[in-house]
Amino acid sequence: MPLVAGVDSSTQSCKVVVRDAETGTLLRQGRAPHPDGTEVDPEAWWQALRGATDQAGGLADVAAVSVAGQQHGMVCLDEDGRVVRPALLWNDTRSADAAADLVQEAGGVAAGGRFWAEATGSVPVASFTITKLRWLARHEPELAARVAAVCLPHDWLTWRLAGAPGLAALRTDRGDASGTGYWSPATGDYRLDLLERAFGRRLTVPEVLGPAESAGTLAAELGGSGALLGAGTGDNAAAALGVGAGPGDVVVSIGTSGTVFSVADVPAADDSGAVAGFADASGRFLPLVCTLNAARVLDAAAAMLGVGLDELAELALSAPAGADGLVMVPYLEGERTPNRPLATGAVHGLTLRTSTPAHLARAAVEGMLCALADGLDALTAQGATVRRVILVGGGARSAAVRRIAPQVFGCPVVVPPAGEYVADGAARQAAWVALGGPTPPVWELKGTEEYAAEPVPAVREQYAAARGLVLDRR
Fold it and tell me: CA angle, corner 172, sides to 281 and 229, nearest 5?
């Protein structure tokens, strides 16, 4: 009974699960928090990983380990492998102007969008690593001059698990590489010319491994006894592995960010920028739409009303569908899709009748789900087939989200039991590495809840009318 470990190094915390490689049975787990903020010293991730691993009983008895991490984050290293500056995370929007400039320099909004979509599968937005490199070169040139290599959060953690054996040993995978803005899912190659265009010179980048290839072995001081390191991947690709998403499944993940994605056999190239044409962790592709505002919309609404999340859900379910015309556009941290990094949130339709906690709670849940449903529309416009939605992430624990989602999405919704599906996906990849074979092992997912489609078109119509009225910060 070989054991494997999966790591989810997310924006907010590090989770570690240890599972049976063949059956997926959960044996133990651990968790440790990450600091707040949109830039973080990577050492904090390492300390959290060590703490979560210790809480999970260590790694001495595992056959393989894989790390899934938050996408896009810029980790810059000098020639000696030292971190040059705190990592800029995916949700740091200071590089919005840099993203716009990269598109403009490629021929303007329309032509530039086509250029980037054809070159890398995605049009740059502030989240992408390439835009952060441009920002660094422009705003911190002394630090930029020290940079010898750039990698992503999961790459750096995998490298540390291997004992940090030099820049040439940096490894990554297709899924995470596809979110940098300088790797092409269609060709499987880096576009170092684009990295040079953004940063001013070329840098060392991690080798891109196949889904079941090993990135090395676990360092002996971490309890390793020849344990293999998987290539790892980005958090969304890991979540797709963790829930076993198949053809016709669209995964909607409601965490710090909101993501809508499906597994595809061909790469996407949306020159509007709405759909990012990422790769997945199985050798296929992962067209994806991301929103900056997801579960924290619920947190914010609960804080405004002075209630907990469970009471927020009760309030929302006590109000009618459509909240009698009250609409929340939840651009609380700007927004990535649509690309409005300076946008603010708004509430429309406030009347004496709708000035109740229940109406506001309902509007918050519906607004968050409508923003994700816009992403679902963008995927179908790119050819995705939607048989059902698999709803995961912390926000899926809300009874109101589970009940209202079929009304907003207009299709059946399946909710697996609460779990760490990003960490589980990493563990499943580790099992694939440990056991070998052409495909990852099949792990049965038990205890899912199913909700039939119950479309209420007025909810989407109200939201569509209101979202164009939000303002940008000055």
Answer: 85
H or E, element range at 279: strand 276-279
Of the listed ranges 96-100, 341-345, 398-402, the least confidently predicted one is 341-345
Q: 55-85, pLDDT tens digit by residue?
A: 999 999 999 999 999 999 999 999 999 999 9
Distance CA(294)–CA(401), nearest Å, equals 11
SS3 content of the chain, % helix, strand, coil (to 5): 40, 25, 40
Would you say the pTM of this structure is higher than 0.85? yes
Is 154 annotated for ligand binding?
no
Q: What is the 3-state secondary structure (H, E, C) of 192-222?
A: HHHHHHHHCCCCECCEEECCCCEEEECCHHH
The answer to whether the CB of 93 falls within 8 A of the CB of 126 is: yes
Tell me the mean pLDDT in the region 290-316. Answer: 96
Residue 318 has pLDDT above 70, yes or no: yes
Q: Closest by alpha carbon to 160, among 42, 34, 41, 19?
A: 42
Q: Which two tokens stand for residue 368?
A: 């968050």
Total residue length of the chain = 474
Question: Rounded to 5 degrees, what angle do the CA atoms 399, 405, 407 make?
Answer: 120
Strand-pairing partners, residue 250, are: 262, 389
Phi then psi for 436, rounded to 5 degrees? 75, -170
pLDDT tens-digit readout, 141-182: 999 999 999 999 999 999 999 999 999 999 999 999 999 999
Integer Cα distance of 167 and 151 in angstroms: 10
Say what the pLDDT of residue 445 is.
85
Residues near 179 by beta carbon (within 8 Å), at least 6 away in sequence: 71, 72, 122, 127, 128, 129, 152, 234, 276, 278
**Token representation of residue 214:** 């090993």
Q: Rounded to a whole number, what is the largest CA-CA distance in the chain? A: 67
Backbone angles phi and psi of 127, in degrees to 5: -65, -30
Q: Residue 294 carries which side chain, given as an amino acid letter? A: A
Q: How far is Cα 412 from Cα 420, in angstroms, rounded to an integer?
A: 22
Q: In whole angstroms, what is the distance from residue 429 CA to residue 65 CA?
A: 8
Q: Tell me which DSSP letter residue 225 carries.
A: S
Whole-angstrom distance, CA of residue 356 vs CA of residue 319: 9
Bridge-based pairing state of the strands 171-173 and 207-209: parallel
Active-site residues, by number, are 235
Under the banding of pLDDT at 50, 70 and 90, the label for residue 419 is confident
- C-alpha span between 40 and 86 (Å, rounded): 5
Q: Whole-angstrom Cα distance, residue 110 to residue 97? A: 17
Q: How confident is the model at residue 258 (pLDDT cuts 50, 70, 90)?
A: very high
Question: Would the annotation count 47 as a binding residue?
Answer: no
Integer Cα distance of 69 and 132 in angstroms: 18
Residue with tokens 């492998």: 81
Q: Is 6 exposed, middle or buried (0-12, 13-18, 19+ CB in 10 A)?
A: buried
